What we know:
Oligomer: single chain
Radius of gyration: 18 Å
Low-confidence stretches: none
Amino acid sequence: MSNRELNGKVALVTGASRGIGAAIAERFAQSGATVVVTARTVDPAASKLAGTIHETVERITQSGGSAVAIGADLSRVSERERLVAETVKQVGPIDVLVNNAAVTYFIPVIGFSAKQFQLMFDVEVTAPFNLAQLVLPGMIAKGEGWILNISSGAARHPTFPPDPARHGGGAVYGMCKAALERFSTGLASEVYANNVAVNALSPNRVVPTPGTVFHHLVRPEDPNQVVEPSEVMAEAALALCSVAPRSRTGRIAYSQDLLNELGISVSAGGPAETPR
């Protein structure tokens, strides 16, 4: 275990069966938090992508950290309510909420079905909104809290004429992430007086995860593609959730840019940081 900024805190990380969510869960546990790892994938046979919440918890506990797995389908309000209630029951009130879960279809608007649209919006916008509603009373009662919404560069408007090399079919994904960012800053303003931080965080570059490889956003066969390790996002997430809430809130942050600003470096063997 390295540093202990989150010692004694309870962190709920959604979409933590793999990729960025798993990396954040592991980094928070390394920093002393008790982490609740949640996602839909509880059984390896249930997904085309590698990784389950139990595998994430196993890595955390084998490294000396504290974590529990609670499966949940965040597209359903009853599951969101159960998740928060079960978290509080098992490990206590939630200090940190990381909204990372996503269901993504890269399909042009003309071919997007109503069912696909609703599922994406439910998981990527409605679920973070509802989970924030569910955890805020406990944070306000404790006098502090941190909410982090994982966004994407897709929230930015495209340039024109469009770049033909960019991945098509991202209009709905970008819309969801733009909505999430505006929700983040709006909520940050509302709960500033309550000492609750709310931020949005995106990677500077595409992160090689099972999901990005599946959607061909990362091309392992291309040795010249510049990618960002998931550890960079995890360290940036920690930087936003381990300081006095009012000192770092209302941000639309980009991972490497934030770490550069704070003088924090991340090596292949783990974080190495200068004093903040």
